[in-house]
Write a structure and sequence with these properties.
With 115 residues, this protein is an all-alpha fold. It has a single domain, classed as Chromosomal Replication Initiator Protein Dnaa, Chain: A (Orthogonal Bundle). The chain contains seven helices and no strands. The longest helix has 19 residues. It is globular, with a radius of gyration of 14 Å.
């Protein structure tokens, strides 16, 4: 295994942690129980939207591939693609766009922190 393979393995190993952190932040922002976002089924409308937002933010903020996000959320990649496309469309709503901007900035700030 060369150095680039090692870096990719470390990056991929962080996928569940990044997905989990995003789920926690989004659950809090949307007032949705974390268990609802992590549930294997679609669930209530608000939980489904929060999950889609979390998938989108994980992809955008952490520059993770669709497949890595899918692994982090235990979802099919087509589900993640749908979530990303849906949230991109919903960004036309100024209020949602403001919320997403705030969430992106919050997650980027957390991601930049070094232990």
């Amino acid at each position: 295994m060369d150095q680039s393979d090692s870096v990719l393995s470390q990056f991929d190993a962080l996928a569940p942690l990044r997905a989990g952190m995003t789920q926690i932040v989004v659950a809090h922002a949307y007032g949705v129980p974390l268990d609802d976002i992590r549930a294997p089924m679609r669930g209530a409308k608000q939980a489904a939207l929060a999950r889609q937002v979390a998938m989108y933010l994980t992809h955008i903020v952490f520059a993770m591939s669709v497949n890595a996000v899918a692994r982090g959320f235990r979802r099919d990649p087509t589900t993640v693609r749908h979530a990303i496309q849906r949230v991109e469309t919903l960004r036309e709503d100024p209020e949602l766009n403001r919320t997403l901007g705030w969430l992106e900035a919050t997650l980027q700030g957390v991601a930049e922190q070094r232990p």
